[in-house]
């Protein structure tokens, strides 16, 4: 199959959307010998590469560099932070995105995938229309992604009231900001901006920050944010915003008014499914999301859905895995359905929060009796060297496998690889305890926690 779009050709697979889920399905299907057409209205790579995971993490790394410069003295290194040049930060960030984008384009081309640029619309269970041309697929994957949600009556102007995509292109460091939403996106921007020198207040309607994480993670993150002078109001619904000459006035429940230079709306992401022909073709939706079975089949035979439009965690790596799964399903490999609970989650703030499996609350609801172990990073040499605080928390079904792993601390996101193996392989503490973890590493904290839960603690601090 050439890379030239041909509407007269019938493809094995037509994919609507070139983000994480769509392009992963395209790459895997092509290696399995299927002919693939990938439709994308903007740029392949989608939100994650251009407006999400990659640029935000670059921003957060720049923030870490700013903190290192500011805090060099505590390590005996005389450094000062002269300031943050947002032009320079954006150049660095955009350079990372651009290199990955070029690499992805090269991958798609080298595997013979036909990329069709333009806005696609599902017109039947086997056809997608783009700019008047119809492309036919023996199978169709819907991978149209998500958009930044707002609240009813809260309009984004892109200047004073912004979403994450606007925040990524700011040409200056805001003096002050209100972040509406204490979930992953809100907490990450609050963390980065604080490192750059912004005075931040987070407003969250639910009782705690990162409310979907284990309660102990929220508690530790909140303590760290207080220490970093990041203000937050939990259990506090937003009421209204008024733009002023100099910024915004945000009114929250109880009538309190917070003034700032801008308001970042980070209340989650909604599914991009409106006006794409899904309902007309008979694809069942629930509150805008495409409903699927565990094999990611929609209500229409031959039509699959992957990524953020499928109810569940809106994470790029979930999209990748779902795309791979559907490609293998179409190729007849009969892959094993994805265990959603086994998908790792990371919040890249300072400190980081990383988890996989069930929270303590969920495990109690499922198993009744559980065993909990909290390993304090105070006992971990590398964490002491990094001057970070936090913990590794294990949740175990009584006398059974480890069903939840939760971590807080600088760089703990890098430990999630082993954590997700432990969960997905249904390991018992005694299975992990004999494995040798290098010293001194933060990874060792996972080993030490399992040693302790297996009844043979080594460097263990209560």
Give the termini separation.
Answer: 61 Å
Number of strands: 24
**Biggest sheet record:** 7 strands, mixed
Low-confidence stretches: none
Oligomerization state? single chain
Number of helices: 14
- Helix fraction, binned, reads 25-40%
Structural class given helices, strands, pairing? alpha/beta
> Average pLDDT value?
97
Q: Compute the gyration radius: what is it?
A: 23 Å
Beta-strand percentage range: 15-25%
What's the overall geometry?
globular
Would you kindly provide a written description of the structure presented here, covering whatever features stand out?
- The termini are far apart.
- The protein is an alpha/beta fold and 462 residues long.
- Strands 1, 2, 3, 4, 5, 6 and 19 form a seven-stranded mixed sheet that branches. Strands 8-15-9-10-11 form a five-stranded parallel sheet.
- The model has no long low-confidence stretch (mean pLDDT 97).
- The chain contains 14 helices and 24 strands.
- It has helices at residues 20-31, 46-51, 53-70, 86-110, 164-167, 184-196, 215-227, 278-281, 316-330, 360-367, 381-386, 416-424, 429-432, 443-453; strands at 10-16, 36-40, 114-117, 120-124, 127-130, 133-142, 146-148, 161-162, 176-180, 199-203, 231-233, 238-243, 248-252, 257-260, 262-265, 269-271, 285-286, 289-290, 303-305, 345-347, 352-357, 370-376, 391-397, 402-409.
